[in-house]
Design brief:
Strand order of the largest sheet: 1-2-3-6-5-4
CATH class: Mainly Beta
Structural class: mainly beta
Order of helices and strands: EEEEEE
Largest sheet: 6 strands, antiparallel, barrel
Radius of gyration: 13 Å
Strand content: over 45%
CATH topology: Thrombin, subunit H
Helix content: under 10%
Number of domains: 1
CATH architecture: Beta Barrel
Number of helices: 0
CATH superfamily: predicted glycosyltransferase like domains
Length: 93
């Protein structure tokens, strides 16, 4: 990634209401590796997070936030240490 690239150019505008968070969570990748993340926001269908590890677009993961049940998800975009995805299981906000 070009370091001078503006982060805003990597993120599509939100299409539905989002809940702003600053919530610690854990991503579990398909190989069982876990990554600590900070969930920045969520909507009924997706999320945005920050991670110390760059996530791969198209990867299937499980996202766990605090006391909530784990939710299957797919990473749809990544730009440096920020990424976003869609929930594969329905959630309730």
């Amino acid at each position: 990634m070009n370091a001078s690239r503006d982060l805003r150019s990597c993120i599509r505008p939100a299409r539905e209401p989002r809940v702003m968070l600053n919530c610690e969570g854990v991503i579990t990748e398909s190989d069982g590796c876990t990554i600590d993340v900070t969930i920045v926001d969520v909507s009924q269908t997706g999320f945005r997070l920050r991670s110390i590890t760059e996530l791969e677009i198209g990867s299937s993961v499980t996202l766990r936030m605090r006391d909530a049940r784990p939710v299957r998800a797919e990473i749809r975009w990544a730009c440096g240490h920020e990424a976003g995805g869609v929930f594969l299981d329905p959630i309730t906000l």
